[in-house]
Input
Amino acid sequence: MGDIAGRTVADLGAGTGRQAARVARTLGPARVVAVDNSASRTERARALYGGVRELELVHADAAAHLGARPGRYDVVYSAFGALDFSDPRNLLPAVAAGLRPGGMLLVATLAHHREGSPPASAVRPVDIPVRTADGDDAILSRWVLDRSVWEKLLVSAGFSGVTVDTVLDDGAYAGPPMATYIIRART
Output
């Protein structure tokens, strides 16, 4: 993220708030707003991190939240969060609108599917089975896109200076080998 001291940061798809709380506690931002569309995860985040002074926990759709707050953020990030589980054709323009001029978007997302199949070469999700916090079975749409698709989406949403790096995990500790895209872009 670089130096975010005194900056306003949004974590999209913050889940239970662990990463957002760490950013708020250790990197010196003025404010970290952790946004998640799951009421139960937001409630859990409040129970765990509600006392972190620089952290605001918000239950909302990420695109709607950003759309209602144009130019509010210096940095927006999503670590396997909202940008994995929201249509990027809707969310990326909202992120661009929510960032101040020169603001940065930072994304960590899958470079291929967990079982090893390649990313999509078109903007389309795959349906994945999940278990909700309440223990129910559900289906989520997940966007696992090729690098060139991400680059085109970002440019069309108004971003520039787009970089996509690949980080490889050999899988020695947690399962099969994985690759992650680290995407950076500026408004």
Remarks:
- Helices lie at 18-26, 39-49, 62-67, 82-85, 88-98, 147-156.
- The chain has six helices and nine strands.
- The CA atoms of residues 59 and 85 lie 16 Å apart.
